[in-house]
Amino acid sequence: MRIPVLGGVSSVFAEDSGSSIVLDHDNVYWIRPTRDGEDGAIVKLAKNSPGGTPSGLASNLLNPKSLVVDGTLLYWIDEANDAAQSPIVYSVSINGGAKTMVVANTPAVNCVATDPLNVYWCANNALMRVAKGGYDETSAVSNSVQAVVVSNDNLFWIQGSAIMKAPTAGGTITQVASVPDAYYIYADKISIYWLSSQGVYRLAQ
């Protein structure tokens, strides 16, 4: 569904289901989850084509989640074909094509984010990063990391019952809010937002 930002009547944008949705200037992208014996997929539909047929960008996915877009590529987490391996972070062009393995065999990976230089992901109670196009992983933050977002050259993440902040280039880690039961975080250029069992919250950066 979609609704004007100033309010109004909601309308069906696409006759499809999704488990994660992201936007850029021109398109809406979402994960089509695994269902009824069909593999998962990444699809897109132009914003000016409501009711149209989504285009497939990546298919044959096992259990995709945590979709993000950086203007050129889409990133997501999926299970490995070998059940003995840990989940994998993949990418694909916003125009489709072959998917690329960004990070492999990552224990307990559960979130992903990007900035112009790096890909970040939560794994095994740590916040990790790798340069785009690179292979040397580094630990950006230790401790229990549940969700992460990048804004204004800063990382914001949920760590236990707190929202934490650190520069993407490295530096001092600070706590910006106490957030019992928070489980999702988002940011624009002005504020950070998070969801918890108690409601939706906002805090100026």
Describe this structure as you would to a colleague.
- The chain is built from no helices and 19 strands.
- The two termini are 30 Å apart.
- The model has no long low-confidence stretch (mean pLDDT 87).
- The protein is globular, with a radius of gyration of 17 Å.
- The protein has strands at 21-23, 27-32, 40-46, 55-61, 65-69, 73-78, 88-93, 100-103, 111-114, 118-123, 126-131, 138-141, 147-151, 154-159, 162-167, 174-178, 184-187, 191-196, 199-204.
- Strands 1-2-3-4 form a 4-stranded antiparallel β-sheet, with no helix packed on it.
Name some characteristics of this structure.
single chain; 205 residues; 4-stranded antiparallel β-sheet; 19 strands; 0% helix; 50% strand
How does the SSE layout of this entry go?
Blueprint: E1 21-23, E2 27-32, E3 40-46, E4 55-61, E5 65-69, E6 73-78, E7 88-93, E8 100-103, E9 111-114, E10 118-123, E11 126-131, E12 138-141, E13 147-151, E14 154-159, E15 162-167, E16 174-178, E17 184-187, E18 191-196, E19 199-204
Antiparallel strand pairs: 1-2, 2-3, 3-4, 5-6, 6-7, 7-8, 9-10, 10-11, 11-12, 13-14, 14-15, 15-16, 17-18, 18-19
Per the principal axes of the C-alpha atoms, what is the gross shape?
globular
- Please give the radius of gyration in angstroms: 17 Å
Q: How can the largest sheet be summarized?
A: 4 strands, antiparallel
* Fraction of residues in H or I helices: under 10%
Distance between the termini: 30 Å
Number of helices: 0
| Estimated share of beta-strand residues | over 45%
Order of helices and strands: EEEEEEEEEEEEEEEEEEE
